[in-house]
Amino acid sequence: MSRFLRPASKFVKSISSVPALKTPKWVGNKSLSTCEETLLNVPPTRLSLLNSGLRVATEDSGSPTATVGLWIDTGSRFETDDNNGVAHFLEHMAFKGTKKRSQTDLELEDVPRAVEILSDIIQNSKLGEPEIERERGVILREMQEVESNLQEVVFDHLHSVAFQGTPLGRTILGPTKNIKSLSRQDLVDYINLHYKAPRIVLAGAGGVEHDTLVQLAEKHFKGLAWQYDTPVPEMDICRFTGSEARIRDDNIPLAHIAIAFEGVGWADPDNIPLMVANTIIGSWDRTHGGGAHNASRLAQAGIEGNLCHSFQSFNTCYKDTGLWGIYFVCDRHTIDEFVFQIHREWLHLCTKVTDSDVERAKNILRTNLLLQLDGTTPICEDIGRQMLCYGRRIPLHELDARIEAVNADTVRDSCYRHIYDKCPAIAAVGPVEQLPDYNSIRSGLYWHRL
Amino acid sequence: MLRKLFRVHNLGNLLKSSSRQCSSQSKTSPNVITPPAVSVKDSSSSTPITKLPLSTPVSWLPKAVYANVSELAKETQVTTLSNGLKVASEPKFGNFCTVGVLLDSGSRYEVAFPNTLIYATSVETTGLDKAIEILGDVILRPRFTEEEIQEARMAVSFDLEALQMRPEKDLILMEMIHAAAYRDNTLGLPKICPAENIMTIDRDTLFTYLKNHHTPERMVLAGVGVSHERLVEYAQKYFVDDLPIWEEDKSLSIRTSLKPDKSYAQYHWMHNATALNHAYIDTGIFCIHASAHPSYLADLAQVLTKEFVAMSSQITQDEFQRAKIQLQSMLLMNLESRPVVFEDVGRQVLATGKRLQPEYFIDLIKKVSQDDIVRVASQMLKSKPSVAAFGSLAMLPSLNDIESGLLDKSGRMPSKKSRFSLFR
């Protein structure tokens, strides 16, 4: 069985190059400057563009299992106030049977059947009224679950204030009113408007041959439209607003608080320095070992003063904007002190972060990014996500080189532009009386002299 | 030929994570969208890499040489070193490897410690030397300063506190069902450190334990995604040539050694036991774990007894085949991930000295017949059940009712009416 790339057929415009087939043994040398060819101990990602505009991307590792997935470039950002929640509703409907198949037929299968099923789901979804009614109940229950998870509640509030008045300020699930009122027609309209071949990526990882997957895609997705009868829907710009939401409830045992600045979009060059900055702050839980020897200074402060139960720094990206900040859970009496420590760390990042801070964080970041690529499902997700975010899959050696190029100056410069003296968005739930008022948090984000 | 399998159940997540993403559209005419093309023009040579959008390829990078599917031999190699330490490795794609040590120091030997201890780490392949040095130091040469012990005590008490605030029901239920099924002996003893023991475990206890249980013949150093030669080389260096701290420093106060408790060991032939999969060499727990609103507890128990009884009657061919395929794919898909392969290699080598490839088990699953299911299930139903429950239990049927349910041909528990009728 040949696994080599055949000459592009007349149906397929292949835009990947034929990888050099050399025998890499165990990779030892990572130094890029001295090595003309970089050895990667992973199979290449191959990409084909079908005539309809549908993209097929695979990483064939020859393993006995495979994951294939469809990625559609759409979501709640294309929703309006009236149909907010429809994209999520469709996720729920995806496995509720199609015109050809009942729900129980959607079982484990081999790759050709899997592709056929995926195509069936997005092209022939039955969207039967009884299933829609049943799913309403399921989604409302899911909503209750989300509402009992305080972290999700805090992040929903954070988005609703940070991106107020824009699609990103809405929740993915949509308001209860919409979940109860969305009709079959709303779902059909949404599909017809957004499920177009150029906005879809078919990704495969594991035991999938690229050429086979391309042929399968040609066969099963030929019905997908690539043109609009109406103007192509535009994506609104999501404006960030420094603002806050506090829900004080002294009956909740611990305070759950998120503070964030406007970050950057997926493809922004500042994304990598901000990821490094995010790693320097780190994440920590007081049940973790390591005690006061933790590398994160914020964790050290948390341990020494017993100031916090857990915290995690985050860098969430969307198409053209993002949120960079921290989420923490702490006792009601230590909020003030811990916020002071957070300020200290952030200003440290913006003004005097050192090369050794940055080197350590780069190692952790690289490790975390690469360790995720374990198993066919995470790899398939990575391919699909990167195809939508970057229009390509960033080769590992390029990602390495991009992280390697970051130094203390790059981090300081990015943080100075995105954090220093900027208005944050704040969301706080629980016994949060002690959280300093907005102006006081805001005025801690600059120094009178450097 | 193995079937290539597909994960339907994961797609919900795939789609969900894209919900907030949006497209970039380079429009040619208002009614046509084209996918963003990978830019071919070379704008990247003049722009510094830190200012280049992530969507633009970097042109000046050295050419990448990718791995080839056919090169990866699927085979586990095992070497035994001079002191009895077994070293096992398996190749895998990726620039990262998982290495670690598995120790068979089960509750059969010492009542207060868990069964198989695993110390493992995932590192970049270039850092293998350092990783094994650290593993060697952690396992054979810990210092256990007063400060470290104090911090460990703190972490354990935070853990217990967290367990009380948000109980992890699965964990507690597993502890309870083992306690019920194996009452006074080893597997029934708690894995979670009881609060009153936190202060009594000291440096001497720890060193005494290590000296007796961290011995090379009870250890496997396993690696996934590493070269076998290098693994053996470093194992020799850090696990054979460098001595354990208790052999180097004779002043460490070691109490008289703990002998395996023969009375337990004879009666309970446990070997390489883990409470997670509930399969032990001569015994095992097959349990169905379910939860529901407290008011539905009676129905829940009824469903469970019916399911148990149904296993011993014929099931449909379709259902049976589907279960087999699901089990096979679950096995293969779990073994996609490096830490899981690592643990599998380690456990198998620890128990049998070699590792059988997943294909062997796939074949075994294929050979299972419907009669086997009926035979095993009927045998299982002859034993007395153990029941563990957690939460508000007012509606939970009594153990007697559950037992009679399991003995009934259709799994039905005695109804309330017949129980209260005095003149039956």
TrEMBL record, chain A:
In what residue span(s) does the Peptidase M16 N-terminal domain sit? 55-107
| Residues covered by the Peptidase M16 C-terminal domain | 181-365
**GO BP, one annotated term:** protein processing involved in protein targeting to mitochondrion
Q: Which Pfam families does the UniProt entry name for this protein?
A: Peptidase_M16, Peptidase_M16_C
Q: Which cofactor does it need?
A: Zn(2+)
Asked whether the keyword Hydrolase is assigned, the reply is: yes
Q: Which domain of life is it from?
A: Eukaryota
Q: Name one GO molecular function term.
A: metalloendopeptidase activity
Q: Which GO terms describe its cellular component?
A: mitochondrion
**Repeat as a keyword?**
no
Give the subcellular location: Mitochondrion
Q: Which keywords, in A-to-Z order, does the entry hold?
A: Hydrolase, Metal-binding, Metalloprotease, Mitochondrion, Protease, Zinc
Q: Which Gene3D superfamilies match?
A: Metalloenzyme, LuxS/M16 peptidase-like (3.30.830.10)
Q: Family per UniProt?
A: Belongs to the peptidase M16 family.
Record-given protein name: Mitochondrial-processing peptidase subunit beta
Query: What taxonomic ancestry is recorded?
Result: Eukaryota, Metazoa, Ecdysozoa, Arthropoda, Crustacea
Q: Which gene encodes it?
A: PMPCB_2
UniProtKB/TrEMBL annotation, chain B:
**Ranges where the Peptidase M16 C-terminal domain occurs:** 201-240, 266-327
Offer one example of a GO biological process linked to this entry.
protein processing involved in protein targeting to mitochondrion
Q: Which InterPro entries has this protein been placed in?
A: Metalloenz_LuxS/M16, MPP/UQCRC_Complex, Pept_M16_N, Peptidase_M16_C
Kindly list the GO CC terms recorded for this protein.
mitochondrion
Indicate, by first and last residue, each region the UniProt record lists as having compositional bias (Low complexity): 17-29
Known Gene3D superfamilies for this protein?
Metalloenzyme, LuxS/M16 peptidase-like
Renumbered to this chain, region (Disordered) spans 17-45
UniProt GO molecular function: metal ion binding
What Pfam families would the database entry show?
A: Peptidase_M16, Peptidase_M16_C
User: Which part of the chain is the Peptidase M16 N-terminal domain?
Assistant: 116-194
Protein purpose: Substrate recognition and binding subunit of the essential mitochondrial processing protease (MPP), which cleaves the mitochondrial sequence off newly imported precursors proteins.
Q: Which family does it belong to?
A: Belongs to the peptidase M16 family.
Identify this protein by name.
Answer: Mitochondrial-processing peptidase subunit alpha
Report the source organism: Armadillidium nasatum
